[in-house]
Write a structure and sequence with these properties.
The protein is α+β, with helices and mostly antiparallel strands. The protein folds into two domains: 186 residues, Glutamine Phosphoribosylpyrophosphate, subunit 1, domain 1; 240 residues, Rossmann fold (3-Layer(aba) Sandwich). Helices cover 40% and strands 17% of the residues. It contains 23 helices and 20 strands. Strands 1, 2, 3, 4, 9, 10 and 11 form a seven-stranded antiparallel β-sheet that branches. It has a six-stranded antiparallel β-sheet with strand order 5-6-7-8-12-13. It has a five-stranded parallel β-sheet with strand order 16-15-14-17-18. The N and C termini lie far apart (49 Å).
Length: 524
C-alpha cells in the first residue's frame, strides 16, 4: 500500500508530481524515484514497503517495456496470477504484486481486472501510444482522485495535494469499480458477482472455510501484523481466524473500563489469552476534542459519521505504528454485507427485497464513509489496514444468502448478522457467547463516544464555538453543502482552513440513502 501521484500530458510533469508526493508523505516510508515514460508525463509513488520490500520500486515496467504502472494497494491472489503468467512465458524480475499487476494488464488488458482479488487504485501508462488506464477496486477500499485540464490528467491518492498543487479545476473522484481512459469512464468486470435468485441457506462449515481463507489470504507472509479489535462480532471473528495462522498476534482496543465495548473485549482476551493492548480514550478530554482538527483534515471529510469514528481510528493507528507494525486487519464490511446495522435489520423485517436494495446502496456508500476512514486514518500513520470481509468470495456468499440467515427474529426483535453469529457455536471454547449475542453499536460509541443528542460529549463545545447567528451565516457561506447541524459546520470549517472545499463536488453531494420501502410497508 502506498500513495501515488501521476501526471499525464501535464506541463512540468515531474515537478508537479514531486509536489503531489510531498503531500502524501505520510502514506509510506520511502519515495521511489519519479519515472518519466514520455514528455510531460511522470509517475511517482510514496511506497510503504511490504511485499518484496527491496525490489518492488515503482513505477513498475512490464516485461516488454511497453506498460508503466503506479499502484496503491495489495493483490491477494498475485502468486496464483504470477504462476499463470510464468506458464505463458512471461518473465519476472521481482516477487512483488505490483509487477504481477503490470504484466497481467499487459497480457490481458482491462480483462485482467476480472481476475484480481485485492484492494487497489492504479494508473497504467503506455508510452508507445500515450494511452493510460486508471482503475479502482470494486468496493473503493483504495482512493483515487483526478483533475483534468484539456488533454492533461493529474492523479493522486488524496484530494488536498491536488488542490494545493493546481490553482484551478475541480477534484473529481474515480468511482469504485470503474476504469478511466482518455475517452471513457465505465464499470469493469470483477470477481464480485451480482446476487441472483434462488438465494441459498447458510451453511456454517462453508462460511467457516470462507472466513478462514479470506482472513489468511489477507495476512502478510513475512511481516508481523496487528488486529484492530473492538470486542464486537466482526473483529472477534477476524481475530479468531487470524490467530489460527499466527497465535501471538496482538489486538488493539481503543477505550477504557467505562466504555461499552470494554467488557466484551476483555471477555475474549480472558477466555483465549489474546494479547490485548488497551489504548486509553476519554471523549471528554481536551486532547481528544482537539484531535478533531487532525482527524477532519486527514480524512478530508466533514461527515459526522466518519469524523467521530476517525478520532478513535487515529488513536488506534498511531499506537499500532508506534509499536512498529506496518500491517493491520479489521472487521470493516461485515455490518454492510451481513446486515448488522439497525436500518438493515428494520428493512429486512419489512420486506426482503427492500432490505437487499438498501444493502446494495449502503455497500455502494462505504467508500464515502467507513472505507475512507479506514484508508485515511491508517495511512496517516503509515499502516496498511486490510479488510478480509470484503474478499470477493466472502462478499459473494453473503450477498447470496436467504434473508433469514441475515436477519432473524429474536425475543428482542429482529437481529442481523445471523450467519456470523452461528459461527460462534462452532468454537464455543474460543468465541464467548456474550459477544455472539450482543447488539450492534457504532465503533465510536463502543469506545465511549455516545451518539444520542442528550449524551453526545461534544454538543456543548459546538454550541460554544458556533452561535445561532454564526450558524445562519455558515449556512449561507456553505450553501450547497446541505449542512444540518453545528457539528457539521464546525468540521467543514476545519476542513476549509486546509483545502478549498468548493473545488470538490463530492463534498457537496453528501452520502445519503435514496432507496425507499415499498408502498405497503410505508402505509402499514
Amino acid at each position: 500500500m502506498c500513495g501515488i501521484a501521476v501526471a499525464v500530458d501535464w506541463p512540468e510533469a515531474s515537478g508537479v508530481v514531486a509536489r503531489l508526493m510531498a503531500g502524501i508523505v505520510r502514506r509510506g516510508d520511502v519515495d521511489d524515484p519519479i519515472g518519466s515514460p514520455a514528455p510531460n508525463t511522470a509517475m511517482g509513488t510514496r511506497r510503504l514497503r511490504i511485499v518484496d520490500r527491496d525490489h518492488a520500486m515503482q513505477p513498475q515496467i512490464s516485461f516488454d517495456g511497453q506498460l508503466w504502472l503506479s499502484f496503491n494497494g495489495e493483490i491477494y491472489n498475485y502468486e496464483e496470477l504470477r504462476a499463470e503468467l510464468i506458464g505463458m512465458g512471461v518473465p519476472f524480475k521481482t516477487e512483488s504484486d505490483t509487477e504481477v499487476l503490470v504484466n497481467a494488464l499487459r497480457v490481458w488488458g482491462p480483462k485482467a481486472l476480472a481476475r484480481i482479488s485485492g484492494m487497489y487504485a492504479f494508473v497504467a501508462y503506455e508510452p508507445g501510444t500515450g494511452q493510460f488506464l486508471a482503475a479502482r477496486d470494486p468496493f473503493g477500499i483504495k482512493p483515487l482522485y483526478v483533475i483534468q485540464n484539456g488533454k492533461g490528467f493529474l492523479f493522486c491518492s488524496e484530494m488536498r495535494p491536488l488542490l494545493s498543487t493546481v490553482e484551478a479545476g475541480d477534484v473529481l473522484v474515480l468511482p469504485p469499480g470503474h476504469l478511466l481512459t482518455r475517452n471513457i469512464c465505465t464499470r469493469f468486470d470483477t470477481l464480485l458477482t451480482a446476487p441472483s435468485q434462488p438465494f441459498e441457506a447458510a451453511d456454517r462449515d462453508t462460511l467457516d472455510r470462507l472466513m478462514a481463507d479470506a482472513v489468511e489470504s489477507h495476512l502478510p507472509t513475512d511481516l508481523p501484523f496487528a488486529v484492530m479489535f473492538s470486542g464486537g462480532i466482526d473483529s472477534t471473528l477476524v481475530a479468531h481466524y487470524a490467530r489460527q495462522v499466527q497465535s501471538n498476534v496482538p489486538g488493539y482496543f481503543v477505550g477504557g473500563p467505562d466504555s461499552t465495548d470494554y467488557p466484551f473485549a476483555m471477555a475474549y482476551a480472558e477466555t483465549t489469552g489474546f494479547n490485548l493492548k488497551v489504548i486509553p480514550f476519554d471523549p471528554q478530554s481536551d486532547d481528544v476534542f482537539n484531535a478533531l482538527s487532525e482527524a477532519v483534515v486527514a480524512c478530508e471529510s466533514f461527515e459526522p459519521s466518519l469524523v467521530r469514528g476517525a478520532v478513535c481510528s487515529m488513536k488506534l493507528s498511531e499506537a499500532i505504528h508506534k509499536d512498529g507494525f506496518k500491517v493491520a486487519i479489521c472487521g470493516e464490511g461485515a455490518d454492510e454485507l451481513f446486515c448488522g446495522y439497525t436500518p438493515l435489520e428494520k428493512a429486512f423485517s419489512l420486506d426482503a427485497g427492500y432490505g437487499r436494495a438498501l444493502r446494495e446502496e449502503i455497500l455502494g456508500l462505504m467508500n464515502r464513509v467507513s472505507l475512507q476512514r479506514v484508508d485515511r486514518c491508517s495511512m496517516h500513520h503509515a499502516i496498511e489496514t486490510r479488510v478480509p470481509f470484503l474478499d470477493p468470495s466472502l462478499a459473494n456468499y453473503a450477498r447470496g444468502l436467504e434473508a433469514n440467515d441475515l436477519v432473524r427474529p429474536t425475543a428482542n426483535g429482529m437481529v442481523g448478522k445471523a450467519a456470523l453469529r452461528d459461527l460462534f457455536d462452532l468454537y464455543p471454547q474460543d468465541l464467548p457467547r456474550i459477544i455472539r449475542d450482543r447488539s450492534k453499536i457504532l465503533f465510536s460509541e463502543g469506545a465511549g463516544l455516545k451518539t444520542k443528542s442528550d449524551e453526545f460529549a461534544w454538543d456543548d463545545r459546538f454550541e460554544d464555538a458556533i452561535s445561532d447567528l454564526d450558524f445562519v451565516d455558515g449556512l449561507k457561506q456553505y450553501a450547497g453543502f446541505n449542512i444540518h447541524s453545528k457539528e457539521e459546520l464546525f468540521y467543514l470549517r476545519l476542513l476549509g482552513q486546509k483545502m478549498d472545499v468548493f473545488r470538490v463536488p463530492q463534498l457537496r453531494s453528501r452520502p445519503a440513502i435514496t432507496v425507499r420501502p415499498p408502498a405497503a410497508a410505508q402505509t402499514a
